[in-house]
Amino acid sequence: MIRLVNVEKSYPYKGGRTWVLRRIGLEVRGGEFVTFMGPSGAGKSTLLGIIGLLDGAFEGEYWFMDEPTHALKPKHRNELHKAYIGFVFQQYHLIDDLTVYENLEIPLSYRDVKRSERQALVADILDRFSIVGKKDLFPNQLSGGQQQQVAVARAVISSPKLILADEPTGSLHSSQGEQIMEMLKELNAGGTTIIQVTHDPKVAAYGDRVIDLADGWIVDD
After folding, report:
1. Range 70-80 average pLDDT
2. Could you give the CA distance from residue 98 to residue 150 in angstroms, rounded to a whole number?
3. In the structure, how many helices (H) and strands (E) does the chain have?
4. CA–CA gap between residue 186 and residue 169 (Å, rounded)
5. Interatomic CA distance for residues 132 and 62, integer angstroms
6. Are 177 and 203 contacting, i.e. CB atoms less than 8 angstroms apart?
7. What letter does residue 71 receive in the DSSP assignment?
8. CATH number, residue 178
9. Predicted pLDDT of residue 173
10. Residues 6+ apart with CB under 8 A from 206
11. Which of 72, 138, 168, 176 gets the highest tally of CB atoms within 10 A of its CB?
């Protein structure tokens, strides 16, 4: 599903360059649950952004679903992102002035799903995540755990092949975090590929493969 060959990322700095990622070589098969770990500044979130097709400014090769994303125009990369990838962020990234229902509908509207089908999919995901009673509430009326529940539901509503989770439990109490991780584990058991970033070994243990980064390099896999 994913193959990175000598992927590097840098920024100009005082006449030279600051390297964020160095010679990243990585393969992820469909159905894996992979965790990126490492100290702050190791390059974990940057690597996740490249894999998620949010950042095309890198050197090297990145093949996703047999597509050479490094050679694609931004429009084509964006189409791949919308078709195959769901994102879960630490800070939820819900739209404050939209209800839970409307937040869940957003990814479907990006994919030009018909209104009747959108309604059916949103109703199904509300039931699946046991948040039917929250559908007319706004994000600021929800607890942190409930907001992250909605964020996970939004990430999976369009049945992505790949879910990318950046510190998905970082803002939650331990019991809320366990609930979110059980959701991700269940999705993975159903065949969804998951790549997460975390500092927490307990969260990492939900996956089946841990990749350690330090100073932009993969130091262990």
Report:
1. 94
2. 12
3. 7, 10
4. 16
5. 39
6. yes
7. G
8. 3.40.50.300
9. 84
10. 33, 35, 181, 184, 185
11. 168
Q: Which residues contact 32 (CB under 8 A, 6 or more apart)?
A: 193, 194, 208, 209
Interatomic CA distance for residues 50 and 70, integer angstroms: 10
Quickly count: other Cβ atoms within 10 Å of residue 135's Cβ: 16
- The backbone torsions φ and ψ at residue 7, rounded to the nearest 5 degrees and listed phi first, read -75, 130
Locate tokens 């047999």: which residue? 66
Q: Would you call 61 exposed, middle or buried from its count of C-beta atoms within 10 A (0-12, 13-18, 19+)?
A: middle
Region 126-130 average pLDDT: 89
CA 60 to chain centre: 22
**Cα 27 to chain center, whole Å?**
17
Q: Domain range spanning residue 69?
A: 2-220
User: In angstroms, how far is CA 128 from the centroid of its own chain?
Assistant: 20
What's the number of domains the chain is made of?
1
**What is the tens place of the pLDDT at every residue in 13-71?**
888 899 999 999 999 999 999 999 999 999 999 999 999 999 999 999 999 999 999 99
DSSP alpha helix (H) spans, the chain: 44-51, 74-84, 100-110, 115-128, 144-156, 174-189, 201-204
Task: Please report the pLDDT score of residue 170 as a whole number.
Answer: 83
pLDDT of amino acid 11: 92
pLDDT at res. 183: 87
How far lies 26's CA from each of 2, 22, 64, 171, 219, in Å?
Answer: 8, 12, 12, 29, 12
